[in-house]
Fold this sequence. Notes:
Shape: globular
Number of strands: 0
Radius of gyration: 14 Å
Oligomer: single chain
Structural class: mainly alpha
Distance between the termini: 15 Å
Amino acid sequence: MSDIETRRNLILLDGFAHAILLEHLLDMVPSERQLESYGDLQWIAELEDEDQEEFLDEYKKVLLLAWQGGDISDVEEFVEDWQASIDDVLPDVSVISFIDEFEFV
């Protein structure tokens, strides 16, 4: 496996870990959720639960398609689109993406 393939797989596994974390948080009573528990997805905590669930459902689909050989840039684009929509509605929310940590070669 090449370095690029390894990096791609790490990005996707990190994405799946974020999805599992968000799913766990959404199973909790909202008052029990702590902002820092969201990790790199803290920006999503500003949304209503319905919107978080919509993000999660779509996010898992995009991740799965990329895992099955699709373009990983689709994951990056998906997250960026959601982040941009958050920025439009909540401009004071700091948005950090786990994807920003990796260089796409």
